[in-house]
C-alpha cells in the first residue's frame, strides 16, 4: 500500500519516480535540476554539489540530473516546467520570479549589498527580507518550496560606451532580466531597457540590438560577452542571487528520509556555493582582463557614491508598493547602521 501511495504521489508530481532498469539504473527517483548558466559559474558549481550530495546521501536512490545552459528549459519556460512537474528543481535569479512572486525582486534593488558577505545576515530567514524569500505566500500557493539562496555575486555594467556617471547611460539600450526594479533602475539612469532571456544576450550584443547589459563577472566571462563589449564598469551596483526551489508535490512524494536528504543537499550546496562564488568571480574578472578585449573602468569612491545616490533611496521607495514598505524600511535602517 505504502509503495502505491508513493508511486501515485510521484507520478502526480511529474514523473519523478522510475523503476529499476529504466534510464538511470537502480535509482528510485529522478530529480531534474535545470538552469541557464555554465557549469563553471557559482550556480553551475552549486548545482553539481547538490547532485553529488543528494546522490551520495540517498545511497543512489535519488538520481539527480543537472541540465545547464538552458539545455532543458530556459528563462521563458522553466517556471512553467517546474509547476507542471516536468522538472523538479530550479535556481532562477530572483528577477525571474517577477510575474509570479514580485516581492522576490527585493534582491534586485540597486546597491542593496555593499559586499556579498552581508547577504546571509540581511536575508536570514527571520528578517523581513528573508521572509519575503523563504516564506513567500505566492510561491507556496503554486506548490513551489524555497530551499536555499545561492549567490552569484555583484553585477558590473558592460557596454560599448564608457560609463562613469549616470548621464553616460542616457539613451543607451540595456538588456535586463524581466524585473520592474531593474526597469526602474535603468529608467532612473535615463537609459532604455529590454527584457531578454539570458541565452539571447550574447547574440543581441553581438548584433548591436542592445548597447549593454549587467551581470557578475562569471556570467560575462562564461558567455564571452566581454568579446562583444568595449567597456566594463566595475560598478558592483547590484546583486545576482538564486532562489533554489523545488516542486513541493515531488518533495512530499519522497519518503521522509529522502526529503531530508534533499534538504541537506540544498544546505550543503549553499554552504559550498558561498565558499566558491567570490573566487569564481575573481578568476573570471582576471580572464577578462587577460583577454584584452575590453577596457575595465574603475570608479572612484565619489563616482560610485554618485551612481548610488542616483537610485537610492529613489528606486527603493518607488518599488515599496511591490516589495513591501516593511522590507524597504528594514533595508533603509540597515544602511544607517
Ligand atoms: C541573467 O542575467 O539572466 C542571469 O543573471 C542569469 C543567471 O541565472 O545567472
TrEMBL record:
Q: Name one Pfam family in it.
A: DctP
Q: Which UniProt keywords apply?
A: Signal, Transport
UniProt KW Secreted keyword: no
- InterPro entries tied to this protein: DctP_fam, TRAP_DctP, TRAP_DctP_sf
Keyword match Repressor: no
Family note: Belongs to the bacterial solute-binding protein 7 family.
Q: What is this protein called?
A: DctP family TRAP transporter solute-binding subunit
**What organism does the record attribute this protein to?**
Actinomycetospora rhizophila
Amino acid at each position: 500500500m505504502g509503495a502505491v501511495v508513493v508511486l501515485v504521489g510521484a507520478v502526480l508530481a511529474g514523473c519523478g519516480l522510475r523503476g529499476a532498469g529504466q534510464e538511470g539504473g537502480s535509482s528510485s527517483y529522478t530529480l531534474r535540476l535545470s538552469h541557464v548558466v555554465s557549469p563553471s559559474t557559482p550556480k553551475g558549481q552549486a548545482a553539481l554539489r547538490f547532485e553529488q550530495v543528494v546522490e551520495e546521501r540517498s545511497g543512489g536512490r535519488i538520481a539527480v540530473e543537472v541540465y545547464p545552459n538552458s539545455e532543458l528549459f530556459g528563462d521563458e519556460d522553466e517556471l512553467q516546467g517546474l509547476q507542471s512537474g516536468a522538472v523538479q528543481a530550479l535556481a532562477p535569479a530572483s528577477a525571474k520570479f517577477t510575474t509570479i512572486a514580485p516581492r522576490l525582486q527585493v534582491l534586485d534593488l540597486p546597491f542593496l549589498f555593499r559586499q556579498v558577505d552581508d547577504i546571509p545576515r540581511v536575508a536570514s530567514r527571520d528578517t523581513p527580507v528573508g521572509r519575503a524569500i523563504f516564506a513567500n505566500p505566492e510561491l507556496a500557493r503554486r506548490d513551489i518550496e524555497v530551499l536555499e539562496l545561492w549567490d552569484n555575486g555583484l553585477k558590473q555594467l558592460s557596454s560599448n560606451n564608457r560609463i562613469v556617471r549616470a548621464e553616460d547611460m542616457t539613451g543607451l539600450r540595456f538588456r535586463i532580466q524581466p524585473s520592474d526594479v531593474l526597469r526602474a533602475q535603468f529608467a532612473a539612469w535615463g537609459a532604455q531597457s529590454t527584457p531578454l532571456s539570458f541565452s539571447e544576450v550574447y547574440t543581441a550584443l553581438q548584433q548591436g540590438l542592445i548597447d549593454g547589459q549587467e551581470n557578475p563577472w562569471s556570467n560575462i566571462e562564461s558567455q564571452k560577452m566581454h568579446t562583444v563589449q568595449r567597456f566594463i564598469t566595475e560598478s558592483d551596483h547590484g546583486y545576482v542571487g538564486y532562489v533554489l526551489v523545488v516542486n513541493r508535490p515531488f518533495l512530499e512524494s519522497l519518503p521522509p528520509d529522502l526529503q531530508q536528504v534533499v534538504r541537506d543537499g540544498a544546505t550543503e550546496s549553499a554552504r559550498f556555493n558561498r565558499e566558491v562564488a567570490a573566487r569564481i568571480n575573481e578568476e573570471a574578472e582576471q580572464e577578462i582582463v587577460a583577454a584584452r578585449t575590453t577596457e575595465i573602468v574603475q570608479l572612484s569612491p565619489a563616482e560610485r557614491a554618485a551612481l548610488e545616490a542616483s537610485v537610492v533611496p529613489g528606486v527603493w521607495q518607488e518599488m515599496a508598493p511591490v516589495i513591501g514598505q516593511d522590507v524597504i524600511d528594514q533595508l533603509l535602517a540597515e544602511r544607517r547602521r
